Amino acid sequence: MHYRTKETLSGYLSLLPAFLALTAIIFYPMANTFFHSFTKWDGATSHWIGLRNYKFIFTNGELWTLLRNNVIFLLSIPGILLLSLIVSVLLFEEVRGWRFFRSLYYIPTILSSVVVGLLMRMMFAQSGVINQFLHALGLSDGKLEWLSHVPTAFLVLIFCFYWQTLGQGALIFLSGLSSISHEIFESSSIDGANWWQRLFHITIPSLIPTIVYFTVTNAIYCFIGLFALVYSVTKGGPGLETTPIDYMIYIKAFQSPDQLGYSSALSIVLFVIVLFVSWVQLRLSNRFQE
Amino acid sequence: MALKKGWTALLLIICIGLMTACSSNNKDSSPSGSAASNDGGQDKKIKLVFWNTSYPTIDENDKTKKKEEFYIYKAIKRYEEAHPGVTIDIQDIPDGTNAMTKFQTAGIANNGPDITNLWSGNYTLDLKQFIQPLNEYLDQKVIDGMTGWSSVTENFADKGTIYGIPDGSDGTIGILYNKKLFADAGVDPEKMPLKNVQDFMGMLQKIKDTGVTPIAMEDDGDFVYFLDYWFAQMVGTPGINDIVNGKLKFSNPQLLEVMNQYIQLYKNGFVTNDQPQTQFYNGKVALIFGGYGYLSDARNALGDDLGMMKIPDFSESAVVHNGGVGGSGAGFVVSKSSKYPEEAVKFILFLLSEEEQIARFKDGYGKLLNVTNVEVGKFTDDPYIIRQQQWANEPSTIFWPDNIYPSELSTYISSMNSLVIKKQLPAADFLSKLDQKRDEILAQK
């Protein structure tokens, strides 16, 4: 066999295991989900119903509530972006106690979402520590039902999201900051630039690729990664008011009989939405970078 | 280069081997697969996997209690001794909707347990594609010896395909109250029975005037225990069936009036949703809605101060009077994945035999007996338990409406009701949403 042919064959053979694994755990389930989105499927038998599942999704009014919930989480990303950025810059500048704070901010990231969720659920319960604390400060009557009202339930969820993402965000931005030359900061300081000027005119522009990465991954997370948090904190309630699309996919698939086809269709809709949002973000960020 | 190739080849072999192992249809990997028999069929060894959702195996007050000391382990030991060759592999799983989710996913993968316990009615019937029909394993004598069969039979009929075996009875949901707090407020429902919702409101107001919160309910507003009864008593069981079939709307004047009065309980400040049982047991609230399942803890907490009454009728024009919701709210099922359905049914019938039901009742299990004509008074002297068994047999006890609704609708109602009680969804809109959801479910059938 020719050396080049051998090399090519060896290359393809090396790729084969990964390709087979991807086929088994990604491509096959995706194709299967796509096929079943056109069927009525109860888990045991399925029959073809064409676009009926999609028609239901777009006409029963539920999708818009679910999308609204996802968008609320999406809109919270700039907040955590700014927070992560500020924390990472402070850590980068080695403010007093930076080693302690670096560990402190990262700890929530290593916890499972369910653990964070259950912890928050207890903290924000009517008789939880948050109410006791606010009552002790004289800021409330100590009976606020955080998880029973839509705005406060969202606040708690977003707080959990921030709490869990801050460490990861700070770490990502720290690695981005370490790639910026120290000389730029030093010369700007010599030229009289203050901390905020350095942040907005040097740090942030230099971190654009990192910001794009952070924003895109978290935007995707806001569509496909909220399940564990929502399940453990609000269970999508009150009503369905904090239910994002991925949680509804779970409800439809596993708590609504014969709805696996509908759930598959909803998964495809979510896939398209995430694809579109990511594409828009990347296009915008490319333009911004230019 | 040769070394590189060698590693690549080795990696390939490992990967292919792993994937083959994962994808092979190894019949012995099913939960029942460990069963084996020799050629002659003698000394047949059968392992039945039992997903336990209902029998307690942990004592919250005594964590040192060994598993062997719990009723179900003792019962399994008795069964295994009486049936050599049969072993029961008991595995604890979460109950309620989580159990149904787990059972469904296992059913799809065809690796469900041999036996499990699910909520009855449509919660079970909605999963019938994964459940073994049991008619051929049950003789008439067995059926006549137990109550609650319609809760596990197709279309809730008296005869038809049976998908489960009813597991005990939940009794009838009523009101458990604190006699002392009632007396402090000058109310005595035993001497002056409440005739309608106005009487009920009047009583609650008197309790509230003493500085005590009258009612504690769960986060979902006790829809299943309380509000559903007022719904059901106004339209009757046929009315509930009509609602399910789309012949009657939730949005009707009778149910709207029920909703308005129910919301009034919240508006008047009669209800707290914070830790209902704990607050009741600590004497902080005057009453909770509950049945037999709460009696033991309530009795331990309140002693002779514990009172029990039925939920007052909503109005004199109700179709059903002096009742409550209840019945056999759960049943044992045999999964279609089971290789030994007959053996599985034998084990279930052993657990539900009169002797075993009495044994678990004496052990403090949270269900009454569903053995025909059994007199619970022989095994307890607690008048409330005896009364619960009597109530359960009365025709005014309506079978759990949430088990009659499609399970998806029941879940939806509970979710939306939590908005109603927090004044975030008006009653009329709530009922319209339920109609919309019901119509949607019917349209998708």
TrEMBL record, chain A:
Top-level taxon: Bacteria
Principal cellular location given in the protein's record: membrane
Residues of the ABC transmembrane type-1 domain: 66-281
Pfam families: BPD_transp_1
Signal peptide span: none
Tagged with keyword DNA-binding: no
Localization of this protein: Cell membrane
Manganese listed as a keyword: no
Transmembrane segments: 12-31, 71-92, 104-124, 144-163, 207-231, 260-280
Membrane topology: Multi-pass membrane protein
Assigned keywords, A-Z: Cell membrane, Membrane, Transmembrane, Transmembrane helix, Transport
Annotated family: Belongs to the binding-protein-dependent transport system permease family.
Protein name (record): Sugar ABC transporter permease
Originating organism: Cohnella silvisoli
Phylogenetic lineage: Bacteria, Bacillati, Bacillota, Bacilli, Bacillales
Automatic annotation (TrEMBL), chain B:
Segment forming the signal sequence: 1-21
Entry annotated with the keyword Signal: yes
Any matching Pfam family: SBP_bac_8
InterPro entries: Bact_solute-bd_prot1, SBP
Taxonomic superkingdom: Bacteria
Keywords from the named record: Signal
Protein name according to UniProt: Extracellular solute-binding protein
Lineage: Bacteria, Bacillati, Bacillota, Bacilli, Bacillales
